Amino acid sequence: xxxxxxxxxxxxxxxxxxxxxxxxxxxxxxxxxxxxxxxxxxxxxxxxxxxxxxxxxxxxxxxxxxxxxxxxxxxxxxxxxxxxxxxxxxxxxxxxxxxxxxxxxxxxxxxxxxxxxxxxxxxxxxxxxxxxxxxxxxxxxxxxxxxxxxxxxxxxxxxxxxxxxxxxxxxxxxxxxxxxxxxxxxxxxxxxxxxxxxxxxxxxxxxxxxxxxxxxxxxxxxxxxxxxxxxxxxxxxxxxxxxxxxxxxxxxxxxxxxxxxxxxxxxxxxxxxxxxxxxxxxxxxxxxxxxxxxxxxxxxxxxxxxxxxxxxxxxxxxxxxxxxxxxxxxxxxxxxxxxxxxxxxxxxxxxxxxxxxxxxxxxxxxxxxxx
Length: 371
Hints:
Elements: H1 2-11, H2 29-46, H3 51-74, H4 82-95, H5 99-108, H6 114-128, H7 130-141, H8 151-163, H9 167-180, H10 185-201, H11 206-212, H12 219-229, H13 255-264, H14 283-298, H15 325-333, H16 353-367
C-alpha cells in the first residue's frame, strides 16, 4: 500500500495540495504560489526516507517561504497573507523536528483558522502524546464540517485516537486521508500498516500498550516484558540458579524480574556487577537475548556456538569474528529478525517498542512452536 501511495504522490501534482482554507490558490498569486510550492516540498519530504533528498526538499521549502515573506514585506504587508506565511513557517519547523520554533510561529499566526488549529493540535500531540490526545480530539471534532476534507485534520485525529489506543477510530481517520487523496497519504498508509501489526500482537496489558508507542526500550522494561507479560520462563528446559551479581538495580521497579531471569540464564552476556537497568536495548542486544532464550527453550547448549565457525557471512555490517556473531546468525537463520534488502542487520541501532514486541512474539513462535 505504502509504495503505491508514494508513486501517486510523486506523479500526481494535485496530491501536493493541503486541503485547508489558507492553502487555496487564490488571493495575491505570487505569495500563494510560493507558499503552495513550499507546502508541496514539505509534504513530499515527510513521505520519503531518502535523507539527502529530504534535506533538499526542506531547503527548497524554506527558500520559498522566505521568498513569500520578502514579497509580503515588499507589498508593505497589504497582501492579507501574513498569517498564512507564519503558519507555513510553523509547518516547516514542525516537519524538520524543531517543535520550539514551530510553536513560536504557530502562536504568532491567527489562532482561529482551521489550518492553524489543526497544526497547533498536531504540534501539541507530538510534544505531549497521550496527555494531549483527548483535548486534541475535542478541539478538532469541534470544527465539524470544516475538516470534512481536511487531510491533516484527519491525520491528526487518527494520531490522537492512536495515542488513546482506539485503533478502530484511528484507522477510520487514516483511511479518510487516503480517500481525500490530497496530502499525507504515505503517513496515513504507514499508520494503518502499524495498526495492523499491533492487532497481530494481541497483547492488551498496560506495559504492552506503552511499549507500542516507545521509540526505544530499556533493559528493565524488556525484563518485565519477558517475565510478567510473555512469561518466557515457562518454556525453559534448562534449570539454572545463577547467583545475582548486580549492585545497581535495587531501585528498579522490575528488580524481581531481572533477578529471576538472570538466575534462570537470561542476560548471560552481561558481565560484572552492573546490570544498567536504564540502558537502551539495541537490535544487537535483542539478538543476544534471543540466543539466550533459544538455548534455554530448546535445552541445546550448542545453539550458543552453532554459527561461530561459519565462513560464509551473509550479514554485511557484522564480522564473523564479532563476539555476538552467533546470535546475529541465529536470529536471521530462524527468521526471527530480518536483514535489510542490502544485507544489513544494524545491530547498534536502538529498537523501538513495537518491533521488540513483534520480534519477541515471533521468537516464541519460531523456537517453541516451530512455526
